[in-house]
Task: structure prediction
Amino acid sequence: MASFFIIESKLLRYLKPEMIAKFFKYTLVLVLFFIIEKQDCDAQTIEMKILIGGHPLCLDSNFNLNQTDSVQITSFKFYISGIEFWNNDSLMFIEKDSYHLIDMSKPASFHIPLDMAFKFPYNQIKFNLGIDSTTSTSGAMSGALDPLNGMYWTWQSGYINSKMEGVFFSKSVRKSFEFHLGGYQNPFNAIKVVSLKVNSLAIQPIQIDLLYFFKEIDLNKQNHLMQPSIEAVLLSGYLSNCFAIKY
Amino acid sequence: MKRLFIYLIILSFFGFVAQTKFDLQIPKGWPKPVYNFKRNPLSEDVVLLGRALFYDPILSKNNTISCASCHSQYNAFTHADHALSHGIYDSIGTRNSPTLMNLAWHKSFMWDGAINHLDMQALAPITHPKEMGERLDSLLVKLNRSKLYKSLVAKAYGDSIVKSEFVLKSISQFLLTLVSANSKYDSVMRHEANFTPQEKKGYVLFKNHCNGCHTEPLFTNLEFENNGLCVDDNLRDFGRLMITQNISDSFKFKVPTLRNIEFSFPYMHDGRFKTISAVLLHYTSPKCKTSSLSNLLKDPIKLNKEERVDLSAFLLCLTDKEFLFNENYSYPRKMFLNMTKD
Result:
């Protein structure tokens, strides 16, 4: 490749100006091509697949939990932060400014492209479900952390780590549910670490099957939770248990 | 000559590009501010943007209520004549609006410390249905339609879009400039003035009875304390408990500063006392004895009538006229006049 360029440049002085211009355009395209290709091979994208009972979750459509009860999820959003890649006990990669808001109504948010400079082996991915206390106490921010996203409590500071809203039908009685789970201060720190075994050769989508969440709770008894509390910590745990990578 | 010309061009270029830094004077002998200025370095243009927002009712849903409606400068930025805050559609809130000063030293905000960072403070009144009743997204639409704010944001941040981060951080910047440190008390501490004999006696009484919570030089220790007020049966405000859900925090409220206390009536979280003498009467009477009552106040403070007058005389030494009438803090009339608001 390099020798090709040397030959080309030797030729340069015999060429007319418009040909030189053409040559530069040509090399520019070539260089761009290499840059793009290089990015392609080092970029890693984490994919999120939101499911319920093994089926892709569809907003506003009914899912039967059992013989008598069913749910309809109308909105579902959550934060993923502090993404790390590990190989056994060695930390291989930490994403910078790692805050991602996954929003069921915005499919583009299911893909998290990661900016990795080089390839490395890994067998575990770790991240937080929610926003850590340092970030929660650092003031106004933009992007995923913009309070405009509706994931910030205004009456009491703190990010809402996850928000799930919808309706459920129990023996044909209709009720609504709202889970705004968050809290960064002990004993109500609701952030959860999710740690998943992976195979670095083929990174599979992360599946989040909400059925595991609904199996743990009784919607008849618990359907509105909108502030930091022990229950919010508990439910955040149930939600974090929904994350899995299947091979 | 030519060289001078070039220098001038370079200089003017710098003047155009570089933000004029705003120097916040830390009064001598004060602790280090808590606010992290590195994340939000003060600049004159940003302070100006924040000041415009603070005084502009555009922040409320129907353009009637500004921050200054409940925080007026001449009352040390609290609400004159209202025990409980008075917001949009004549709504009455559940608490008295506190004074705003020396906020760079505060580690939490609101009577119960619900807000953890000054930047996030403004979100609470803007979105509160009884205060300004607005949504953040609608507010940004309004601001992005306004020539005034487009131009202020362009100057302050070099950006053509008004973003929520700019709104929040610029209001913070304006609030951070509200420093009150020039009362008679401060002059005496700097050996530029002297207390009268009466004020001096009052200062000694203050140190003995009040300084434990209303600690110099901020005149608050910024902690949450229960000073023995009986709970109001209508409001049933449990204070700090609502945030920590810890029983030992019930009826605790953030200790307010006593600076400019002469002008910040009515007093306490629910504005129950109209005068300083009513406050002193509270401290010298038996308290409502709940388990979280501060040890410092288990027994009534003993002050005879003459001592109460002395103590009041000292409290008036905390009035800072320069702060109350500082034009840099007041309604930015010129800015609102010069720019067509639309």
Summary: Strands of chain B lie at 224-225, 253-254.
